[in-house]
Amino acid sequence: MEGNGLIVEMRGIVKDFPGVRALDQVDFELLKGEVHILVGENGAGKSTLVKILAGVHPLDKGTIKIDDRLVHINNPAHAQQLGVSIVFQESNLSPFLTVAQNIFINHETFRAGFVVDVSAEVRKARELLQSLSIGIDPNELVANLSLGKQQLVAFARALSFAPRVIILDEPTSSLTAQETDLMFAALKKLKEAGVGIIYISHRLEEVFQIGDRITILRDGKKIETLDIKNTELNTIIRMMVGRDISEMYPKEPTMIGEEAFRLEGVTRDGICENINLTLCKGEVVGLFGLVGAGRTETMRLVFGLDPMDAGSVYLYGKKVNRPSPSKLVAQGLGFSPEDRKHEGLCLALSVKENIERASLDRLFRSGFVWGNKEDEIAQKYIQELSIATPSSDRLAIYLSGGTQQKVVLAQWLCAGSSVLILDEPTRGIDVGTKVEIYRIINQLAKKGTAILVISSELPEIMGISDRMYVMCRGEITGELKHGEVTAEKVATYAFGTQESVDATKFQQ
User: Of 13, 257, 455, 463, which cross-links 281 as Cys (Cβ 3.0–4.6 Å)?
Assistant: First the structure.
């Protein structure tokens, strides 16, 4: 990094929220033309630190310098004037405006001083998107775009301010592999232009792909800043969680019993064809596939969220006629969806209300919800799953991603589910909490629960599964037992080819 000037200097940053010190005397520096990775478990203070720099939160103590000039950042608009742009993890685009309107919102191009020059904005938006190799029509409504494309539009909007500092908070969490490559190529160009980049990610493999330096936070404190080229992954993990994780995927042997769940010939035109799959008591089965393979869409059919054209679902050898969510839940099937915030939880409800919402008929047969019983039930699962919440009355919206995932699991345990479908159960979760989720899966399997895990992380699914299925273009192309799995075999099935495939891209 020699020869690069200091753009941002944050010293002694302190930030308190009610009952919590989110940041405690944190120092942070950003150099011109570097990608500075910021990592830590959920609640470590990463997002709080960058939101202070972006003007979202005021700091309580400490100083911020930009270009060696002391600044007091009042709000996001002021931060943008100082050359700081941020792309949030959660999309803050306006869905019923066009791509071009979203890119230039709050800094529109005017004609005759007061009329928005729509054609000029469309032209400039097209030029900006093309410069990033993003093939999105600037006239398209944002509501019609995938989550990944919306994230790329948010990235383009941040760049439309010509920032000297850009902050990216989990930017690739909703991107396909191809979209991620586009973003990384754009970051390389920004680096070459001297832009300083702060990059938050739970995907530690990205650290070594694009990072120059890395700062690790834990419990609101800075642990260390390191040069990426001289740092090992295990060192980063140890500093993040404060302990060694010798076994990232702590698979434990279980007694595999009778068949618990079976799919026969599940088909939906354009989604999947002739899906056959089995799952036994005490078994963890993985389902892997590239983006577009149809994994999530197939399980939505199975759970009765979308109609299937053909096929049957069996639970413990009995066919479920006309599967529907209510019927399947009553017969012991639980489904943790990929989008836990919008489909797995009701964010406006409390922890205890979310835990019990799939079980109200069973728990409160009289039709009355008794407060003491409600609290007792919630506390049981809060303790069993080590759910980090100050109380069972805490609203789900205020929980970290890992804690939210535990609440989703608790919901299905409370419902008495003996078969669980977990779709991307560790997406967007820090490495320490991932290991906790794996241990919960192990414990459930040891108690006889049958678990199907859908994941796009190959090392994860290889590490925790007794068997795994691989999908490609809506079909199951391979089945592998735990001892037979190699990244090369999985890649070959995932690409739908009989020839050996280079699997290094999957080995994270």
Answer: 257
